[in-house]
Amino acid sequence: MKHKPSYHFRPEQNWINDPNGPIYFEGKYHLFYQYNPSGYQWGNLHWGHAVSGDMVHWSHLEPALYPAKDRGENFCFSGCAYENDGRLEIFYTSVGSYGHGERGHIEGAEQWIAVTEDMKTWKQIDENPILSPEQNRRQGKYLTHWRDPFVFQYGGEILMVISGIVDGWKAAFHIYQSKDYRNWEYKNCFYTECRTTIYECPNVMVFGEKIVFVYTCFQENAQYVVGTLNEDYSLHVTRHGEIIDSGCFCASNVFKDPKGRYIMWGWLREDDRNELITDGPWSGAISLPRVVTLEDGDMVSFSCAEEVKLLRKLTETHQLCGFSGTKKMSCHSMTAEVECFLKTDGDIRIRVLDSEDGTEYTDIWILSRAKTIWIYRERSSVIPEVVKDSLYSRYRGDEQHVSIRAFIDNSVLEVFVNDSTVLSGRVYPVNDRAGISFTVENGTADGCVNLYQMTDS
């Protein structure tokens, strides 16, 4: 059995989680990520690093950022990357220990900057910490779980948003302003829902005067709100929170590419494997790159980046006219894309990872009248320990026309519908010969279905 993804981003082995600091710089895409170079479980966090010319074919480099243990740092938590006067810098959360204490991640996290001369290794600057709990306390701010800085520009100002719990219970995001990326002034509480939780991984995307603000709650899905920036630097929300992807996607990070698109990456969690080691010492993967757009009415859409088509090898295509029933694809593949452009009044099922004896399969359902996506995982694996709950999301569009891009990558599923909605999931089949079929029930369908074999990234 093979569960390690082939064309989704991840290093050869070991633990990864949050994507960090994605950026386009000097003709290359750079993607950093939380990485444990010594094991397949969380801990010993460095910043892994890879470069690409097209966002889908990656060259893995040595870790970009190692903990400065001689300065009391043992974890390099998440953060961002930005260009400062022609140089690429990393702004991240520095932690000495996991838990309470002077440099613990709960009360003692600091915000550090690292710089590079060769685009391969980054060194923590002597001025660190750039921001410390002591500075917050001097301004009357007592923040815990203070982490994950994200730098952006709005109205010509350099701003930074970071998470932090207020008064020991209220999760919030806080905004700082700077003129030089070194000296930061606390401005206000940027956003809060007055919840008792832990906020993480803030991202800000600017569309004119509008802001799409993305964040993750601890052990929950990434979500977004839309708004504008008030004069006091708080976020005036015009559209309240919506889940980005109700599957396994979380801890997103974004950047603006040379084409002016906002590209989003996220961590595809391994929770549903319940820490089983099924095919080697590895854990975690990064989503396919998603393009984020702001539509009329403050609606946010998520589509798969066109660059992913570079991985395609057309295997077969089927033209449909008044079709109902089931069509089995001749190709058996664990790494494929099923693309559909349909006019239908029925329900669409794409069965993937279907074993020859029928003991394992996963069904992707697109219910056109209800406008819902389902990933049914009840029969996805004969391994009893893995999670097999069904996953669900609503999508936008009319009741008759639907476009689908369903990606299968060993244990990863990502399903994009109408270039607006996406649902991800993890499945862990034992079989290595995986059938694919297409079904229309409760109606008929016109259009086409394309099957692509996907090459490794």
TrEMBL record:
Task: Please give the Gene3D superfamilies that the UniProt record associates with this protein.
Answer: Exo-inulinase, domain 1, Glycosyl hydrolase domain, family 43
Question: What keywords does the record list, in alphabetical order?
Answer: Glycosidase, Hydrolase
Which SMART domains does this UniProt record tie to the protein? Answer: Glyco_32
Q: Which CDD domains match?
A: GH32_FFase (cd08996)
One Gene Ontology term of the biological-process aspect is: carbohydrate metabolic process
Q: Which residues form the Glycosyl hydrolase family 32 C-terminal domain?
A: 330-446
Give the source's domain of life in one word.
Bacteria
The Glycosyl hydrolase family 32 N-terminal domain covers 8-298
Q: What is its EC number?
A: 3.2.1.26
Molecular function (GO) terms listed? beta-fructofuranosidase activity
Whether Hydrolase counts among this entry's keywords is: yes
Question: In which family does this protein belong, per the annotation?
Answer: Belongs to the glycosyl hydrolase 32 family.
Name used for this protein in its record: beta-fructofuranosidase
Q: What is the lineage of its organism?
A: Bacteria, Bacillati, Bacillota, Clostridia, Eubacteriales
